[in-house]
Amino acid sequence: MRRPSLTGIKRIFWLAAVLGFAGSAPGVRADSPFYTDDPEFSPGWEIKFGMTAEHNTGGTTWAAPVLDLNYAVVPNVRLNLTLAARTMESASVSSATGFADLEFKLKWRFVDADTNSWLPSIGIAPKISFPTSDKDQGLGDGVWRAQLPLQFGKAIGRFYNFAEAGYQRAFARNATDVAYYGAGTLYSFTSHLALGTELYDFTPIDHPANHTLLATLGAVYAFNEHWAIKASISRTLRDEARGGPNPSGVLYLVWNF
Predict the structure, then answer these.
(1) 3-state SS, residue 22
(2) Dist. CA 182–CA 200, nearest whole Å
(3) Which of 148, 139, 232 is nearest to 184 (CA)?
(4) pTM above threshold 0.90
(5) Residues 204-223: pLDDT tens digits?
(6) Contact status, residue 212 vs residue 231, Cβ threshold 8 Å
(7) Is 118 exposed, middle or buried (0-12, 13-18, 19+ CB in 10 A)?
């Protein structure tokens, strides 16, 4: 995923990771466990249930349970709603548990990849974050946010390459806007197993020196066309004190129907 204050920056990373690594190989999509999303998605319903964890200089954050609901209303448009509980553990303050911010996203793939040329699939995925977490407990900052990314995806043999660049607007004076971009690749070893990696950068507009550069390793094992397990681990490539998880992880069970 993952913007506002440094606290908000940390929160976006686990939210982005929560979104899971979809599909079975070959034919996998990027999205989670990568921060970088892509234009492809499965038809019909996709329900993801799982948990994430992140450790950084502020402490440890858990998101569990996480419920991610996706529905493709037409072949190239999908709706997405993400709900989660959140627990924050810090050495300086007592731990707190409650609802995380709710997220709603619409993904529209307006160009399909051409198998006979280098033309990739292209899409956008506007997203709104609703401040449903408890600000008084330190589980959120009470700020509404909106994202607009441009996404690309292209399969070449067993490799699936993907990239995304976007801007996040924070609707509050005490929160910074954010520019983000990432790129990665997936490799399908078998019809059941795919592995991938990415690089992702998240830059606060008001504090560009505190940008976070992340590396992620992700894997998915598809039991069949309906069920899969997804997992990933990420960590910052910069000084941890300047933002970013060290490390973070996600584990997800995915049901397509």
Answers:
(1) coil
(2) 4
(3) 232
(4) no
(5) 999 888 888 999 999 989 99
(6) no
(7) exposed
